[in-house]
Specification:
Blueprint (H helix, E strand, L loop, with lengths): L10 E5 L3 H12 L3 E6 L16 E2 L1 H4 L5 H17 L8 E4 L5 H10 L4 E4 H7 L9 E5 L3 E2 L2 H14 L3 E4 L11 E4 L13 E11 L9 E3 L6 E6 L3 E5 L12 H14 L7 E12 L6 E5 L2 E5 L5 H18 L7 E3 L1
Parallel strand pairs: 1-2, 1-9, 2-8, 4-11, 9-16, 15-17
Antiparallel strand pairs: 3-7, 4-6, 5-6, 10-13, 10-14, 11-12, 12-13, 15-16
């Protein structure tokens, strides 16, 4: 088992510069450790699962389908996001539904907390573009969202400012490294953790100046929740499906559902310009729960599934607590 230490100069090598590895590197560097973050891809991170993520920071919404541990980690992560990146937008999220999904909408309301119900007038006041579109909505005022392709470079800069080193195009293994090694490779670790599987999340990026939204809108759907997430420069991300498949690309069926969801939120999306299709494979264990494993002198952080941006900061704090003080969170950590 890894020997914990309180020495701040203990070298720490982290493999994988996606959202999980970036938060590990930032918190360890801030704690005074000599951190080196290795990423096999280049600085654009286009091969990373994080590149295709929605960036939703929505622990109360996720409680509808996720285990309580996700809500616990997610709510704590919001505090860390606010502390480390205070410009992170926390202006809430909305859940809406059309009349045919009314029963599912009411079920969602019963199974989640931290929301208030808005009537049509209050919804229009909050999001003028949605005036007349829905008779009511659920508003989760304390949730937030980030744009992964903008926030990951910010985290990388924060790591370097804290004294950490980032090495892109560095395809290393734990055997190549000394000191504490934290493996955040996602599906890249499957040769050692064969229970991992990939769950495909698809997205479409569209552009229009005809609709303005200040927060993500989740549309209740018979198979999965569909999101319309505003981004800068009149862009909107449509996502994210959860498909038990490990192929790449976006299927015709998913494209139709994602584009149809956007049109259902607002008809003006029908005239939007499609900028990009894409998909990423989220690493998941059979129970879809995250795991911090300590085995043979190495730590692995994996299985973040569709909650990477939501829970990565809290997982990094748990790892740091273990290394420095021997603290163990029994719901998340496995030592052996």
């Amino acid at each position: 088992m890894l020997q914990t230490t309180k020495r701040p100069d203990s070298p720490v090598s982290i493999i994988g510069a996606g959202i999980a590895g970036a938060w590990q590197a930032l918190l360890f560097a801030q704690a005074g450790h000599a951190v080196t973050l290795h990423e096999r891809g280049d600085a654009a991170m286009t091969d990373s699962t994080s590149h295709w993520a929605g960036g939703m920071l929505a622990p109360w919404c996720e409680a509808e389908v996720a285990e309580p541990i996700i809500s616990r980690l997610g709510q704590h992560s919001l505090d860390i996001w606010r502390r480390e990146l205070p410009d992170t937008p926390f202006n809430g999220s909305l859940v809406v539904a059309h009349p045919r999904e009314r029963n599912d909408f009411e079920r969602f309301a019963r199974m989640t907390e931290g929301h208030r119900r808005l009537d049509a007038a209050a919804l229009a006041e909050l999001e003028p573009s949605l005036e007349g579109r829905f008779r009511d909505a659920l508003f989760f005022p304390t949730e937030g969202h980030v744009e992964p392709r903008r926030v990951l470079p910010k985290l990388h800069e924060r790591i370097k400012a804290a004294g950490g080193t980032i090495k892109f195009s560095s395809d290393v293994s734990a055997a190549d490294l000394e000191g504490i090694v934290i493996d955040c490779r996602g599906l890249g670790a499957r040769e050692e953790q064969p229970e991992l599987r990939g769950v495909k999340g698809e997205m479409i990026l569209i552009e229009t100046g005809e609709v303005q939204l200040s927060r993500p809108v989740r549309l209740i759907h018979p198979r999965w929740p569909l999101y319309v997430i505003p981004r800068e420069d009149n862009l909107f991300m449509l996502g994210a499906t959860s498909i038990e498949a490990e192929d790449t690309g976006v299927s015709v069926r998913s494209a139709l559902e994602l584009l149809g969801a956007a049109y259902a939120v607002h008809p003006a999306f029908g005239e939007a310009r499609i900028v990009e299709f894409g998909s990423g494979l989220r690493p998941a264990y059979p129970d879809n729960l995250p795991r911090i494993g300590v085995r043979g002198g190495r730590i692995s952080v994996n299985g973040l599934y569709r909650h990477g941006f939501l829970i990565a900061p809290a997982l990094a704090e748990l790892t740091l607590g273990y290394v420095e003080r021997g603290q163990i969170d029994n719901e998340v950590m496995q030592c052996g």
